Amino acid sequence: MKSDNFASDFFVHSLVYERYEPFPKSDLGFFYDVGEIFAHSKQKKSFKGSGYHTFIEQNRNIFESKNLVELSEIISSSADIIKFTEQLTINGHKNYIIAALFLKFKSDLLEKDTIKGSETGQLIGLLRKKNQFISELNAAIYLIGSFFGYSKFYDDLYELIGLNIFKSPRKISNICTG
Fold first, then answer.
1. Angle at the Cα of 12 from the Cα atoms of 6 and 18, rounded to 5 degrees
2. HSE-up (13 A, CA, CB side) for residue 160
3. What is the chain's percent helix, strand, coil content, to nearest 5?
4. 118-171: per-residue pLDDT in tens?
5. pLDDT, tens digit, 9 for 90 and up, residues 55-88
6. pTM of the model as a whole
7. In the chain, domain spans
8. Neighbouring C-beta atoms of residue 53, cutoff 10 Å
9. Is the dihedral of CA 97, 102, 107, 112 positive or negative?
10. For residues 78 and 139, what is the distance between their CA atoms, to the nearest angstrom?
């Protein structure tokens, strides 16, 4: 069942969305996915024919070489798709960026058990360093945790907080001689 058959919440659709279209395999593909998710949340079969779809298609050759952060900046500032971005901006949170980040993280981490050395970890570090899209990043991290669950990342969490309960204990020499 495709996600256009139920609920109208954008993030519910983001969590259950699977790509059925041959969108680009680059970061641009995640923004095509966001268009599909938005259409599904409005009970439409596809976003093809929308102003957002037209915008992406007209700029596809330029956009395919851009990374997710660059695409987020372009889409956020474009006057050509303001209707789309305004509908997906709630209380200052750009839900289209949250969904694109979530989809990238999901794709990257699907076959991994850690964020160490992953594109996800690098992107999180970059956005934090640039202090850019922080509220969107935090929401995407929350969504990815909801999607995969605690067990996927507990090793990373335990290491981060210094809880080494699964490491082999060090041998302590007997100080009592007797």
1. 80
2. 8
3. 60, 0, 35
4. 899 899 999 999 999 999 999 999 999 889 887 777 677 667 667 666 555 555
5. 999 999 999 999 999 999 999 999 999 999 999 9
6. 0.84
7. 3-149
8. 18
9. positive
10. 23
